[in-house]
Amino acid sequence: MANTYTAITKKSGKWWIGWIAEVPGVNCQERTRPALLKSLKIALKEALAFNRGEALDAAEADFTEEPVIV
Asked: Is the dihedral of CA 2, 40, 27, 18 positive or negative?
């Protein structure tokens, strides 16, 4: 299932900096905008996988998973 997130980007001096608006803590900086978008995508995937792992660990056993659409 593909999801869409919002990259907030701006040029700051010689660097491009960016954040994923919907996921706190996902931010990067790179020399070019294309490199920044690539880094943000990688960081977002890693953050989502980490958060999912933590949620499953916290649930321990005997849990269900339900899709939530907003």
From this structure: negative
Q: Give CA–CA dist 67/45, Å, rounded.
A: 18
Name the residue range of residue 26's domain: 7-58
Backbone phi and psi for residue 28, each to the nearest 5 degrees, phi listed first? -150, 170
Q: Is residue 69 part of a domain?
A: no
The number of folded domains in the chain is 1
Q: What is the pLDDT of residues 14-30, one digit of tens each?
A: 999 999 999 999 999 99
30 in a structural domain: yes
Instruction: Answer whether 0.85 is exceeded by the pTM.
Output: yes
In single-letter form, the type of residue at position 69 comes to I
